[in-house]
Amino acid sequence: MNELLLRSLTPSVLGILVRRGADFAAAEDAVQDALAEAVRVWPADPSPSSSSGAHPVRDPKGWLVTVAWRRFLDATRADTARRRREDLVGEETAPGPVSAVDDTLQLYFLCAHPSLTPSSAVALTLRAVGGLTTRQIADAYLVPEATMAQRISRAKRTVSGSGVSPDRTKPRARGRFDRPGDVATVLRVLYLVFNEGYSGDVDLAAESIRLTRQLAAAIDHPEVAGLLALMLLHHARRTARTAPDGSLVPLAEQDRGRWDTVLIAEGVEILQTALARDRLGEFQAQAAIAALHADAPTAEETDWAQIVEWYDELVRLTDSPVVRLNRAVAVGQADGPGAGLAALAVLDESLPRHDAVAAYLHERDGELTTAARLYAEAARKAPNLAERDHLTRQAARLNTRRSSR
Amino acid sequence: MAKYLLLKHYRGAPTPVNDVPMDRWTPEEIAAHMQYMNDFAARLERTGEFVDSQALAPGGTFVQYGGEGRPPVTDGPFAETKDLIAGWMVIDVDSYERAVELAGELSAAPGAGGKPIHEWLELRPFLTAPPTITE
């Protein structure tokens, strides 16, 4: 049984059911049933070279649509609103072949529905578009399966409320969902998945790249390309980012020979095509910064002046204090630690990682006592273990150096 | 989403408003308290925010490495020490504000006289796995 094949077919099968008029929650249940059935009855080796000579299921997607639609009809007939829905179903003519792309696209936007919380949107996207099982999503987020099942079914109910109208006279192709999310929300959801970065049974970073690739193939939008480029450029540095013992390796100290040059080249190319369209957005700007890092043969040769310019663009686009904090680091590299500290001075000290940035700039400025104190303070506030250990080591390095003098 | 630990203490926390030891409660009051806790956990399961919860026995033992070739050193039970954890609940919520809100609700479990005990709960964020982007 090819799990990847099933996962890749899930969104289009679900999309077809929804387009045929199935309520989202019911359609999703029916597709899950069909997937379970496929796992049970499909041959283990679907390749044409297997002993049987050909895949008995010649059209896996068609097979799944048929089974899922049958399941949906069974469930619908058992429903209390049976008669009305049977009428609806009876009127439905079997649709001819259609592009699966539009259906899948609709699912992306549905899963980014504005009434969903970010965590619900993420869970629903992984389930409906990614085709992951509830258990896989629960494992990835380290919560019990029952909890994740509830999170997903609540999300399904939320978006189902805005589902198909039984009134067949109304046009249904557009406006079926009262307020599907916009592209920006879809991208944010995908970026959330990417940043989770948990690598267990399901590698969420790889999964989000797969989904973003799929989205980029379906929709022509510079920011979708920007996000895909950003993910690829970050992902290219993944193996160099941690030492074998799991500790963090800062960008400047990473072994650049371990960066994935194929991914970098692909990311840069996608980014350049997007930038050429002159519709800049925050993901393209972030990807441009990542590309400048990826482009530098050594940390010293990084083009910090250009990175500061991109941060200026990002500040203009987002006005985010976190972006200003990152900009202060870049300014410190481009114009010296004094300039970096000046850029930092106007920012709120309660910003996440403010102390870590201040510690770094003070160290480069030669104020080791202040730097050590700030590193220790930053370690206390670190949001994860790897970062805390890294900052604690930085503080310890300065403290032991001073005491050994 | 972020995970938080809600810690209940036998002692060590500030004195709750409705400070009557549980063994002075009526059986009905104890049942009501337990029901509240169970309902709370069940509700969080339905909202997709529940991760885990456990009650701990009051006894505990400090254990220490005893040196090469020697058995571990124990010092306890330490039921008399000032800080003692009674149990925990782990939640997975969208924001710190939501975690505080839920901790407040849990602290409102009924105690003696059916009134909320207002017990102090310790709210501790989990350290997470590093995100994909750290530089």
UniProtKB/TrEMBL annotation, chain A:
The keyword Transcription regulation applies. Residues 184-274 form the DUF6596 domain. GO terms for biological process: DNA-templated transcription initiation. Residues 6-79 form the RNA polymerase sigma-70 region domain. Residues 167-177 have a biased composition (Basic and acidic residues). Pfam families: DUF6596, Sigma70_r2, Sigma70_r4_2. Transmembrane segments: none annotated. Residues 155-177 are annotated as: Disordered. Gene3D superfamilies: 1.10.1740.10, Winged helix-like DNA-binding domain superfamily/Winged helix DNA-binding domain. Signal peptide: none annotated. One of its GO terms (molecular function) is DNA binding. InterPro entries: DUF6596, RNA_pol_sigma70_r2, RNA_pol_sigma70_r4_t2, RNA_pol_sigma_r2, RNA_pol_sigma_r3/r4-like, WH-like_DNA-bd_sf. Keywords: Sigma factor, Transcription, Transcription regulation. It comes from the Bacteria. Residues 108-158 form the RNA polymerase sigma factor 70 region 4 type domain. PANTHER family: BLL6612 PROTEIN, BLL6612 PROTEIN-RELATED. Belongs to the sigma-70 factor family. ECF subfamily. This is RNA polymerase ECF family sigma subunit.
From TrEMBL, chain B:
Gene3D superfamilies: Dimeric alpha+beta barrel (3.30.70.1060). Residues 15-107 form the YCII-related domain. It comes from the Bacteria. Pfam families: YCII. PANTHER family: BLL7171 PROTEIN, BLL7171 PROTEIN-RELATED. Belongs to the YciI family. This is YciI family protein. It comes from Streptomyces brevispora. The lineage of its organism: Bacteria, Bacillati, Actinomycetota, Actinomycetes, Kitasatosporales.
